[in-house]
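We modelled the chain as a single entity of 148 amino acids. Its sequence is:
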Amino acid sequence: MLKVYLSGEIHSDWREQIIESARGLDVSFSAPVTDHEASDDCGVAILGAETNKYWHDHKGAMVNAIRTRKGITDADVVVVRFGDKYKQWNAAFDAGYAAALGKSLIVLHGDDHQHALKEVDAAALAVCSEPQQVAEILRYVLTGSLPA
């Protein structure tokens, strides 16, 4: 079974597109928590309230990092999606962490991010512009089959 961690933006259905397109393959997918409120508030919900927004966010980031580190460490392939709506600094961090661990890295973004992500792209084994391309790479890795 190929373990794939799907990191990056949470404001579109790109994960679902990859999972659906990879149906029938021996792949297990994992991801960060994509419920934005739950992700932001997990630290204070579990460890206690903070009056200072910095410490509120810091607690959440640390708790989320436990899940993220485990997901990336356990993965055979890490896919990092950079969306158009927001700057995903955490996605860039995840890509760097995966690269430092020697994980097979696939980056997914539009053409408008090519220049800004040139160093991230250089660390990736594949740079895709569509979720379907990621699924086709996974199919090729597992079966050696090219798209029909």
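As a brief sanity check on the tokenised model: The chain has six helices and five strands. The two ends are 23 Å apart (CA to CA).
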